[in-house]
Amino acid sequence: MSGGGLTTQRRTQGGGLLVAGTTSDAGKSVVTAGICRWLVRQGVKVAPFKGQNMSLNSYVTREGAEIGRAQAMQAQAARVEPTALMNPVLLKPGGDRSSQVVLMGRPVGEMSARGYHGGRQRDLLEPVLDCLQRLRDTHDAVICEGAGSPAEINLRRTDIVNMGVARAARLPVLVVGDIDRGGVFAQFFGTTALLAPEDQELVAGYLVNKFRGDVTLLEPGLDMLLGLTGRRTYGVLPYAHGLGIDEEDGLRLSLRGAVRESVSAPPHGEDLLRVAVCAVPLMSNFTDVDALAAEPGVLVRFVDRPEELADADLVVVPGTRGTVKALAWLRERGLADALARRAAEGRPVLGICGGFQLLGERIEDEVESRAGLVDGLGLLPVRVRFAREKTLARPSGTALGEPVEGYEIHHGVAEVLGGEPFLDGCRVGAVWGTHWHGSLESDAFRRAFLRRVAEQSGRRFTPAPDTAFGTLREEQLDRLGDLIEEHADTGALWKLIENGPPAGLPFVPPGAP
């Protein structure tokens, strides 16, 4: 098979590459997606893979498996259907020291970080490698994403996502560094030097991400890095705004300043529509509001103070891995009272998943928080009981006269006692609630919902008639592919993917030279 100068031969297994990073947020997810999009445009059958992901931003595949949303995005970049094989282990933090472990798309229990890294993680390497092998058996190439840094030497013994996978599968490793943070040469050198000789053999080279300025000024440093490590740099990707799609970790969101604070385009009507998203603890699937932010004239911001709700035309209470904890947080911050005032005044509020649950009358939780019976905010006639079995579904239907699709990820089972039906939840006045994530990505439904919000808030806002969220997402993924195609040595990258780690890479001793 060939395309765009690349030639693949049917082998017993497909080629592979592990995209590692010097730090978290170095750009591994978007680089992996970009390589996938570049390859599929060349006619290569490619799949993404991440052995272990820690994220509260997840997705439900068509077979009903829960995986990291970043891997679902990468699958879209590769133009393949996402499956549990692409993310066999997902850790969903429930606090600072424990996480829910999701194995092959199904939760298998809660575990402390010490317990997981102390024993259970070692048992998961075999199923992780089996999933990788199954993908390599059916694809020309598999682009794997690492997690954090491969040089986390305290975790190397139990690693199932970075060098543990690379060594077991003999994958070449491309290390990505975020130069916008500063210190990228030290990061590249130090990452390499901290690895064992057997791991260093697999580190083929580096990729600089988020570079601003004249690349010729950087080139002497890249030559010096080659001299110090014996490893080349495979590309320098320029800084590009608006590419942080489907981030893994909502815990690192900046409440004021970094997230979706600008309007995508002037309003189609006369007024802007302002959306405030309550930045609840353990916020999950915060990408639910991306489709709102993509609408011309809609301003989305994350907030944590009641006064920030004052000028909002719509307040969104998003999903959370800790519904009872989020409920207490809203009360402590004064946001609960602000939401109650909005409801009494007929000003729009939308609760999604955990945000829907806490808007109800009461919550019975012996599963997530084990808090027992807790009073909700009482803004919707709903009672919630947490079940041990997690609901994972891909529902579809009609709401506000328009077709809509979504996905469900929750332990809470809602009993709706009244109000007007709304998806699987209800509406009372200007307060709306549903378990469905992703519903706002349905274009006609989103426009109908925004028209209702504009009416209830008294804004002269008209949704643009032609905003297609799926098309905008495809354009973003093409931009990622363009970055790789235009600013990386794609010929050399393909040789890595097809042939494996280069032979004769030198060992870099710690502290040298």
TrEMBL record:
InterPro entries linked: Class_I_gatase-like (IPR029062), CobQ/CobB/MinD/ParA_Nub-bd_dom (IPR002586), CobQ_GATase1 (IPR033949), CobQ_N (IPR047045), CobQ_synth (IPR004459), GATase_3 (IPR011698), P-loop_NTPase (IPR027417)
UniProt superkingdom: Bacteria
PROSITE patterns associated with the record: GATASE_COBBQ (PS51274), GATASE_TYPE_1 (PS51273)
Residue span, CobQ/CobB/MinD/ParA nucleotide binding domain: 18-248
Domain CobB/CobQ-like glutamine amidotransferase: 274-444
Active-site positions on this chain: C353, H437
Pathway note: Cofactor biosynthesis; adenosylcobalamin biosynthesis
Listed Pfam families: CbiA, GATase_3
UniProt KW keywords: Cobalamin biosynthesis, Glutamine amidotransferase
TM stretches of this protein: none
Stretches of the chain forming a coiled coil according to its record: none
Family: Belongs to the CobB/CobQ family. CobQ subfamily.
Function: Catalyzes amidations at positions B, D, E, and G on adenosylcobyrinic A,C-diamide. NH(2) groups are provided by glutamine, and one molecule of ATP is hydrogenolyzed for each amidation.
Identification of the protein by name: Cobyric acid synthase
Source organism per UniProt: Streptomyces lichenis
